[in-house]
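Q: What does the assembled structure look like for these inputs?
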Amino acid sequence: MAPRPDVSVQRTQEVLEAAIKVFARMGFHKARMDDIAQEASVSKGVLYFYFKSKDAIIEALLKQIFSRSLHIQELLQTEGSVRDHLLDLTDTFGHEVQMMKLLLPVAFEFYSLAGRNKTVNEFVGNYYRELINSLGKLIEQGITRGELRSDLDTTQTARTIISIFEGMTLLWILEKGKFDWLDNAKNSITQFIRGIERCPYQT
Amino acid sequence: MAPRPDVSVQRTQEVLEAAIKVFARMGFHKARMDDIAQEASVSKGVLYFYFKSKDAIIEALLKQIFSRSLHIQELLQTEGSVRDHLLDLTDTFGHEVQMMKLLLPVAFEFYSLAGRNKTVNEFVGNYYRELINSLGKLIEQGITRGELRSDLDTTQTARTIISIFEGMTLLWILEKGKFDWLDNAKNSITQFIRGIERCPYQT
Amino acid sequence: MAPRPDVSVQRTQEVLEAAIKVFARMGFHKARMDDIAQEASVSKGVLYFYFKSKDAIIEALLKQIFSRSLHIQELLQTEGSVRDHLLDLTDTFGHEVQMMKLLLPVAFEFYSLAGRNKTVNEFVGNYYRELINSLGKLIEQGITRGELRSDLDTTQTARTIISIFEGMTLLWILEKGKFDWLDNAKNSITQFIRGIERCPYQT
Amino acid sequence: MAPRPDVSVQRTQEVLEAAIKVFARMGFHKARMDDIAQEASVSKGVLYFYFKSKDAIIEALLKQIFSRSLHIQELLQTEGSVRDHLLDLTDTFGHEVQMMKLLLPVAFEFYSLAGRNKTVNEFVGNYYRELINSLGKLIEQGITRGELRSDLDTTQTARTIISIFEGMTLLWILEKGKFDWLDNAKNSITQFIRGIERCPYQT
DNA sequence: GATGAATGAGGATTCATTCAT
DNA sequence: AATGAATGAATCCTCATTCAT
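A:
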C-alpha cells in the first residue's frame, strides 16, 4: 500500500505564503493568527502543527525572504564586462523588487527589527554581508581586468551599489510605485559606473 | 500669587523624547505606555493629558522625525560648486544619521507603516518628495553652470543621491555601525559625481 | 468522530442569564465583565466570543426583557367579558412582575437610558406602544359590546391601565415587595373598571 | 468692616444645578466631574470643596429631587370635595412633571438605584410612603364625608393614584412627551374617581 | 490529524481624587 | 479660596495559545 504522501512540506509552504500576504497587508502586529489561518484556508490548529508560534512563522518568513540569492556567483563565472554584469544585476534586482512589491513593507519591518533583535540582525546582516562580499569580488575582477579604476575600495564600492538598490526601493515604496524602478536604477548604476571606470565610457 | 508656569510645551517634548527612546528600544508594539511614562518619569495619566492615545504619540513622532530639514535651500543660495555642495550635504546627512542612531529603527518602522497607512505614507512621502525636489534644483544649477553633464535627468539623479544616503544608512544599521558611514558615503558620492560631471575630475 | 455539539445558543443564553443576575445586583456600570464571567462560570474570553462588547450584552438584555408578550392578542379572541379579561391580564402581569423581581432594577435602568439613548428608547417605546395598542383594542371591544361607556378614549384608557401596572411595580420595588402587588393591582383595576363601565358593577 | 458674604449656600446650589443638567444629559456614570465643573463654570477643585465626592453630589441631588412636597397636607385643610382635591393634585403633579422633564431620566436612575442601594431606597421609599400616607388621609376624609365608598382600602387606593401618576410619567418619557400628560392623567383620575365614588358622578 | 471553543495574561484608556502652587 | 496638572486604580477588550472532542 502506498504511504500517505507527505504533505507537510507543501502545507508548510502554503501557510507561509498565506502569512506573507497577511503580514504584507496588516503588518506583523496587527495580523492575527486567525487571519493567517483564514487566508490559508486551514484551521488555527494547523498553524500550530507546523509552527511553534507566531514568532516562528515570522522567523521562517525572515529566512525565506533573505535567502533569495542574486546569482552573483554565477555572474563572476560568466563572460562579459563588469558594466554588463552590473546592469544585468540591476535587472535581476529590479524584477525581484517588482515581484515582491507586497512583501516590501514586511522587509522594512525586518530592517526595523534588525536594529533590536539579534536573530533578525544576524540573518539580515549575513545576507547583506554576503551580497557585499560577492559584489566586492565582481568589483575586484573589474579592477584586475582593468575595467575599473585601481584606487577603488572594493567593499565601499559594493556597499554603494547595494545602497542604490535598497534606497531606490525605499523611495519606490514611498511613492507607491509611481516611478519606474528599473529605469531609474539603471540610470543610477550607469552614471555610477562611469564614475568608477578607468576610461569613462563615452555616450 | 504667581500662576503655575506653563510647562505644557516642555512636558510634551519630554514625553516625546521618552517615547523615542522606548520605541527605539522596543519598537512601537512592544513599548507599553507604562514604559514611556516610566522613561519620562511621569505617571501614565500625563501621557494621556498631552496625547490622545499611543497612536497620537507615534504620529507626533512621525512629524518630528520627518520634519528635519536638510538646509538644501540654503545650499542653493551659497557660493561653491555642486561637487562641494553635495559633499557638504553628505556631511550634514551623515552627522544626522549618527546623532539619530537610536531613532533609525523607528524610522524603518515608519517606512514599513508607510506601505499600508495613508497618513504615514503622505507624511514620509512628502518629506522625500521635497528632498528630491530641492536636490533636483541643485542638480539643475550644476547643469546650468556647466558643472554637470547636460543629458542628466535631474529627478532621477536626485533620487540616486537620496538612495545612496538611505541605503547606506540601512546597511549601517544592519552592520551595527561597524563601518564609517561618512567615509563610505563620501566615497560613494565622490565616485557618483565623477560619473555625472561634464569634465570628470582628475584624481 | 462526532462533531462537538453546537452549544452556542445555549451558551449565549447562559451568559445572558448570568449578566441579568449581575446587572440586577450591581447595575450596568458597576458590573464588571469579570463578574459576569464568574457568574456564568466561564472565562472572560467567552463573553467576547458571544458578544461584541459589554454594551452588546446590555442590548441583548434589552431585547430579551422587552420582548415578553402579554398574550393580549389571545385575550381578544377569547370568550369572556372585558372585566374578566382585564383581571386576567392583571394576574398575568402580576405573576411576571413577581418572577422578574430581580430584573426590575434593570428595567428601570433601561427606562432611564431610554431618555437619552435612541436604540433603547425605540425598543422600549415600541414595546409599550404595542401594549397600549393591543389594550386599546380590548377597550374598543368592550365599548362595542356595550360593557364600557361609549365616551371613553381608548388610547388614554389603555395608558391608564398600563400606568397602574407600571406605577404599582415601581412602588412595589421601593417598598421591597412589602405589599402584595397582585392584591393591590386587582383592587386598582377593579375600581377603575367600575369607573369606566356602562352599568357600574354592584359589589 | 462687613464680613465677606457667605456664598457657600448659593455656590452649592449652583453646583447642584449644573450637576442636574449634566446628569440629565449623560446619566450618573457617563457624567464626568470635569463636565459638571465646566457646566458650573468653576474649577474641579471647587466641586470638591463643596462636596466630598461624586457620590456626595448624587446624594445631594437625591435629597433635592425627592423632597418636593406635593402640598397634600394643605389640601387636607382646604375646602372642597375630594374629587376637586384629587384633580387639583393631578394638576400640581402634572406641572411638576413638565417642569422636571429633563430630570426624569435622573429620577429613573434613582429608582433603579433604589433596588440595590440602601440610602437611596430609604430616601425614595420614605418620600413615597409619606405621599401615600397623606393621600390616604385625603381618601379617608372622602370616606368620612360620604363622598367615597366606605369599603375602600385607603392605602391601596392611595397607591393606585400614585401609580397612575408615576406610570403615566414613565409612558410620557418613553413617548418623548408626544402626548399630553395632564390631559391623559386627568382622564385617568376622573374615571378612577368615578369607580370609587359612593354615588357615581353623572357625566 | 484537524478543529475551533475556551482561556487568561497583557495592555490601552478613563477619570475620580489629590495637592502643589 | 481657587486652580488644574498629575496620579494611578480600575476595567474593558484583544488575541496568542491550548486542548477536549
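The domain at 68-196 of chain B is CATH 1.10.357.10 (Tetracycline Repressor; domain 2).
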